[in-house]
Structures
1.
Amino acid sequence: MEMLVVMALIALLAALSLPSFTTGMDSIRLRSAASSVISTFNLALTRADRLQEAVDVTVSPARHLVEARTMATGIIRRAELPKEISIAHVYPEEGLLTASDEGLPPDRHFIVYPNGAVPRITLDLVNEHGTHRYVLLDPITGVARERVVTDPAAEYVDADHQTASAKDEP
């Protein structure tokens, strides 16, 4: 009888702790995906600077992929995001691009030139629970970094990567 009570208590504790465990795992997946994208951005910057090769950075929200490909040698670095992580937005937004026939967002291409200005790129990564994390490539510092977003509905990233509240919009 005591063994049955102990087993019931263990099952109850396991059932209560499972949601927090899965939320924690989703947070780790999102952080890992952001780190992988930052690594891909940094590789593109390093290749352009040290090897003097232009690098095409492709962001594909439909394929959950960020890719850096050197133009001359074709060396590729891919950051394949887990299926639970999606690219919600790519900034700066391009008004001329349209979705494909299937309704999927189009791929975006950014070129990193040797001795050239670093393109401004911001990716909004989101997991299944709606947690957002921005990955930013800053053209002033030439550094890729990430930023946690607590309330994406109240924030946006303006042209200078400065956080502003939505109520401050003109």
2.
Amino acid sequence: MSFLSGLAKFGQIVANVAGIATGLGPIFKGALPSQAGTIDKVESEITLIAGQIQTVEAIGQALAIKGPDKLKAAAPLVAQVILKSALMAGHEYDAALFTQGASKIADGFADVLNSIKPDKVTAVKP
């Protein structure tokens, strides 16, 4: 598989994960209609984090960067998404512990994306 076709497949995987998250939105909105705005925001943030991981993965593939170094590159990007979220708005936090948590989230998202078998992606979920 060429780099570009691999990257296209990876893009489909990210879209699939985002589609799964988005597909759950209507279920949650139906159960919690007063929280629809919050659910939309969470879906958006999940998509942003997946996009950051996808970007780092693409750059990592192009430059032959190993996994631990890709994590070092992704963690600050994920941290920025989290810092801009309502979760962190107006709160003081322990920077070292926050950085550790953001790194774990980036690592977890990468694991989730890597768990999807690219040869089984045939269509992007709505």
